[in-house]
Amino acid sequence: MVSSASSNATPLCFSNNSPPFIHNHTITSAYFSAVFSGLGLSSNLFALVVLAKTFHHTKSRSRSSFLLFLGGLVFTDFMGLLVTGSIVVSFHITHFNWRQLDPHCHFCNFMGMSMVFYGLCPLLLGAAMAVERFVGINRPFARCTTKSSSRACLTVVMVWVTAGCISLLPLAGLGSYHLQIPGSWCFLNISSKPLEMTFGLIFSLVGLLSLAVSFLLNTVSVVTLLKVCCGQDSAQRRRDYEVEMMVQLILIMTIASVCWCPLLMYILKTVVSSLAVDPYSVLFYLRLATCNQICDPWIYILCQESRLRCLLQRPCCRAASSTLAACFSGFVLRRGTRSWIPGSTSYSDVPF
Fold first, then answer.
1. Which domains does the chain possess?
2. 95 contact partners, CB below 8 Å, separation of at least 6
3. Where is the G-protein coupled receptors family 1 profile domain (predicted)?
């Protein structure tokens, strides 16, 4: 009797939502998921190729470091869409029954871990990139330029390890992953129970803290960069590529905030105030967050320095960019600063 009861017991991942579901097919369209995943994968793959070519030709050590961060971000987005998208699209095509396919919740736990891991990585990488640019712009003498690439690779690996450790917490008993409506994905259980609430707070607060750090440091870096480019000492330092990197970084931060803040704030509000979870709101916020993985690669593709120059040279933008034109003019630099040859796009770094 005991063994029969235990075999009929509902697995933890199906305790809230158990298949099969009666759902609206318009929100679970296989075409939507397939197009969404295909667009994201192709965009990230194209961005990886462009990044690899740019990294091969760049001569600036600090820019190489930034490109490694961007490469880590795009690669993470690509793998996130590949892993989670393949599961979601497979469900919509085959309509498999989760309880029959995964009676012990291993598959659901894997997808939940993937959702948390690939969700936190872009936010943590954005914060790490903001720190790197803050140090490079505001404290250029505080870092060793000869080891910038290896330091960037180590930072990306540390971000992956940190996000991986957080995603493994439910397997250690802190929180749990549950099947979510419409039955195509698994995610952390949003609940006010102590252990579930703790994991929900960790996930949401780590994400929101990463966005806050990015916003604060990027704001300081932009103010400093504007002072250097357009101030009295604008003739001392040539920073075209730093303007390019800051534009990209601000767009990454802005898009990540727009895409992720609704989901993170919803989780935080729900677990703290013990409100009932609306599964369709969670689904909408998650789809909005997934848009971040599609937008990230196009930030680099569309915001390279050559395109920014062309934009500034257009007649409609000349009046608005007259104040910033000094940032894109060539200067003779003194020793100990970045050198640039007028009319050229090649740079060389003299170690600080």
1. 25-312 (1.20.1070.10)
2. none
3. 43-300
| 86 Cβ neighbours under 8 A, 6+ residues apart | 37
Question: Which amino acid would we find at residue 349?
Answer: D
Q: Are 118 and 83 in contact (CB under 8 A)?
A: yes
Q: Are 248 and 69 in contact (CB under 8 A)?
A: no
Can you tell me the distance from the alpha carbon of 195 to that of 91, in angstroms, rounded to the nearest whole number? 30
Structure tokens at 305: 């320095």
- Residue for token digits 């992956």? 160
Say if CB 245 and CB 108 are below 8 A apart: no
Angle in degrees, 0-180, between the axes of helices 279-302 and 61-94, rounded to the nearest 10? 140
Q: Which is nearest to 14 in space by CA: 91, 87, 99?
A: 99
* Separation in Å, CA 322 to CA 145, 239, 245: 33, 17, 20
Cα distances from 59 to residues 54, 299, 329, 338, 347, in angstroms, run 10, 22, 20, 11, 6
pLDDT tens across the length of the chain (352 residues): 444 444 457 777 777 666 656 655 554 567 778 888 888 899 899 888 888 887 777 666 667 777 888 889 999 999 999 999 888 888 888 877 788 888 888 888 999 999 999 999 999 999 998 898 888 777 765 555 556 778 888 999 999 999 999 999 999 989 889 988 877 888 998 888 889 999 999 999 999 999 999 999 988 888 887 777 665 554 444 455 667 777 878 888 889 999 999 999 999 999 998 888 888 888 899 989 988 888 888 887 776 644 444 544 444 444 444 444 444 444 333 334 443 333 333 333 433 2
30-39: which pairs have CB atoms within 8 A and are 24 or more residues apart? 30/89, 30/92, 30/93, 33/85, 33/88, 33/89, 33/92, 33/184, 34/89, 34/92, 36/85, 36/290, 36/294, 37/81, 37/85, 37/86, 37/88, 37/89, 39/294
The answer to whether 167 and 199 have CB atoms below 8 angstroms apart is no
With CA atoms as reference, report the closest residue to 210 among 117, 78, 120, 75: 120
Residues shown for the chain: 352
Q: What angle do CA 282, 288, 290 make, to 5 degrees?
A: 100
What gap in Å lies between CA 148 and CA 121, rounded to an integer? Answer: 20
